Amino acid sequence: MDCPDCGNNRTRVVDTEPSADGTSIRRRRECQRCTFRFTTYERPEWESLQVKKRDGTIEPFDRTKLRGGIERAVEKRPVDDEAVTAIVDDVQEACRDREERIVASTLIGDLVAEALRERDKVAYIRFVSVYEAFSDPEEFLRELDAVLEAETDPPDETNT
Ligand SMILES: [Zn+2]
Fold first, then answer.
1. Does 123 have pLDDT greater than 80?
2. Smallest Cα–Cα separation from 7: which of 39, 29, 33, 45?
């Protein structure tokens, strides 16, 4: 949900209520960058986002399950609860902004992987090794090499 004023895609919901006719949900949103406030009317179906898994089965989007997967990946890593919540929020928001109400589990996996890659390389590798079925092991090793190279070159300042 992009801010109509500055185009920023991070908005905060400040108020939610059903519309007068009950067919949609009225949300008051505030841009996290410029604090511009605007109202959106969302179809309630968007609340019941569906996820299509690799085997073709469709199940409701499960925030807790998504969070659990991320938490396993960031265990003992410097990624706190707040950051995990932010990733879950971002992924959910990105899925909701799509036209389709059914999103592929692989898309969700990609979004999470992308977010983790920016925050913590080890968590990223853990996540993709479990959740992204690489078509062949070579591909995974190449990805791992690329990440490790990025870690060591240039040297990490925190290691000095
Ligand atoms: Zn804005």
1. yes
2. 33
